[in-house]
Every structure is written in C-alpha cells, then in structure tokens.
C-alpha cells in the first residue's frame, strides 16, 4: 500500500523525476520541404491574371483540358454499362492489390500490345495518368538529380519533380518544325545526374505528333547516354489523318521505357481516375525500378477498384466507331479553328497533328499596347469574354493555347470574337513607327 502512495500522481511530479527534452513554448507548425517546393505553374499564372469577362458576352473558356466540360463529348454506352455492371456485381467495394486486380492488368496488357510485348506483370494501375507520371518521376528522381522535360510542355512535370528537389531542364520544341525537339540542345542538357527524359507524344500543349524518324533520333540519344525514358502517351489514339503514332517503347530493344497512359482522354472519363504504367524493361535494367514502383504503389493502396472491375469490359467492348467519331470531331474542330485564325492579322496558328490542343503565335510587335501574352489574354477576356491559356503557362511566351473539345458553334463564335479583338488592336508598321516617334518626342519635351 505504501508503494502505491509513493507513486507520482501528477504530470508535474512525473516531469520533475524525468527530464523533458522539448523546449517548445509556442505553436510553430512548419510545412515540409516537399510541400514548399511543390507548385502548379499554370495555377500560379492564372490566379495572377485579372480575369474580368465582358458582362454583355457569355464567357467562352478555351482553356480547360477536360473534354467533358461542355457536355458535347460523352463516354460510350458500353463504357457506362461496364461501370453499372461492376456496381451491380457488388464485388468491387473492397481493396485490390496495390498494382491492380489481375484481370484488369491482363486487359491493359492486351490493350497496349502495340507498344511491344507486355505481360500483366508489366502493368501497374494508378489513379489517373497524372498519378502514373508522379510514380515514374518519384521512382527515378531524387534531390540533386535532373530530369529533361519539353518546352512548351505540360506543367505537371515540373510540379511533380520540383517537390522532390529534382532540377527540371527544358529542351525546346521548335514551332517552325511542327514542334519537333531541338535534338542538339536536348543532348547537351544531359549529364551524370540526369535521371530521366520525358517524351510527350502526342503533345500537350502543341498537339504535335512526332514522326517515327524523329522519335528514333530521340531514342538514340537516350541509348547513347543511358538515360531511361518516361513516355507520356495519354493522347496516343488522338492522331489526325496524315499522321501516325509510334510508341517510344516499340522503337528500341535497348532503352528502358516507362509508358504512361489511361482511360482519361480517349474514353472521355477523366474523373474516373484510371491510369497505368507499362514497364518496358531491357535486359533487367529496371530490376530495382520494378521494386521501387511496387513500393510506391502502396502509398495510396491502389487505384479505384470499381473502375478496375469494369476495365476489361471497357477496353474490350468499346467499339472503334466511337473512337473514330471522336477523333474526326477533334480534327474537324482543329481544321475549322486553324483555317479561320490563319486569316487573322497578327496571329500564327500551328495546325496540330493530334491530341486536343492548338498553339497560336502572337506577333507581339503588331500589338504594342500589350507587353506580354498575359496582358493580351487579359484584354481578350475583358473585351470579348474569350479565355485561352497564355503561353507562359507552358514556359513559352507570345503564344496562347486553345482547346478543341468545346462545341463547334463555340469555336466559331470564339474565332469571330478573336478576329474582332485583333482588328481593333493590330497596328501596322507605320502606326507603330508613328507611336514610337510620338513617344520619343514626348520624352524630349519633358527634358
């Protein structure tokens, strides 16, 4: 009984007998370096814009890379029925293996045979293609390493890499060559710390589709310098007439490739978040990488099991006519926008070969009242209620990107407003010279 009485009965007495290491005397909750270094360049730029649409004109947003936004493009009945069946079966409510159910991985392996020999063990199911890219960058990169990304390019590469302290080195895509990569510059960027080369084909934001010979040249550079490739091929089936898609992995038996794809765009279900990684190993080079991918896939305990159960039916049963009609629609929209914008003074559209975007160059010297593509876009929204993403969102100033998935009548109306805007603000060379002379005269009178 005496022993019980002698026991410390208060926290104060416990502290007196056992020294406390903490010297904290106030709240100071810090964020991690990973959170601090992670940022979305597009969001940062767009949030900094003064977006005030003209209240007399309905807003036409040619900025959103979601093909379902306006409701004109819908998934096929077969895709929707597959999900309904998975719900009714009642077998999709629990967890799946971290890399995905076997039958779903088997279906993906059949679906991507054009990439080269693929088995279910080469497939990892992810929560959308962005998750696939995240895992690929995470498994290859680490602080002090660098990764090669295209410019202009999809901003998520930088978002995903810089959080880990990975340096992003940009290689140029050349508009005068339909956005082919500057191969000389690309090769010069490689050093001992280069952990991966990202190849986006078909491209976002450019809508480029690389010819086979150009892809072979890129793969040859990777082989000479022993750099693995991360192939972002989410738009692989969005290819317009006159162009042909070639999977990077199909062009070499020596360069290891992690190919990223998914349901998102082709099946018009971006919100379902179903993507995948295809591991194209070469002579066991990716042995440790495979183990790393397995480790990383458990971080979120696998992807959506409901969509996994529906995946075989979605991939096997969706008719080719559905896909053909979708690509034909995008191609028609691209031709419509390109032919119309090409007639507008001061603008230089580049006809895409695929995907669902078009880049348009701005002859900034003929729009002297706008200092940058940002101010051009702001004024376009303010006067005409047409919003396109400025080129700086993709590290490529004096351009803007428009999305081709909106209804056709909206494209027609948007181009009409764009023409009106440019006609109001375009300045001829003589006008520009006169403005410059008047500005110089004003400066002299103030002296």
Describe the 3D structure.
It comes from Anopheles minimus. Pathway: Amino-acid degradation; L-phenylalanine degradation; acetoacetate and fumarate from L-phenylalanine: step 2/6. By secondary structure, this protein is of the alpha/beta class. The protein has helices at residues 2-6, 11-17, 33-37, 41-48, 77-89, 102-111, 129-140, 156-162, 183-188, 212-225, 287-297, 305-317, 320-341, 373-384, 408-425, 429-446, and strands spanning 60-61, 123-126, 146-151, 167-174, 180-181, 194-200, 229-232, 257-262, 275-280, 347-350, 357-362, 386-387, 389-390, 399-403. Strands 2-9-8-7-6-3-4-5 form an 8-stranded mixed beta sheet, sandwiched between helices. Strands 10-11-14-13 form a 4-stranded antiparallel beta sheet. Helix 8 links the parallel strand 3 and strand 4 (167-174).
Salient structural properties:
16 helices; four-stranded antiparallel β-sheet; 447 residues; Aspartate Aminotransferase, domain 1; alpha/beta; 2 domains; single chain
Annotate the secondary structure layout.
Elements: H1 2-6, H2 11-17, H3 33-37, H4 41-48, E1 60-61, H5 77-89, H6 102-111, E2 123-126, H7 129-140, E3 146-151, H8 156-162, E4 167-174, E5 180-181, H9 183-188, E6 194-200, H10 212-225, E7 229-232, E8 257-262, E9 275-280, H11 287-297, H12 305-317, H13 320-341, E10 347-350, E11 357-362, H14 373-384, E12 386-387, E13 389-390, E14 399-403, H15 408-425, H16 429-446
Parallel strand pairs: 1-12, 3-4, 3-6, 6-7, 7-8
Antiparallel strand pairs: 2-9, 4-5, 8-9, 10-11, 11-14, 13-14
Helix pairs in contact: 5-12, 6-12, 7-8, 7-11, 13-15
Subunit structure: Homodimer.
Family: Belongs to the class-I pyridoxal-phosphate-dependent aminotransferase family.
Protein name: Tyrosine aminotransferase
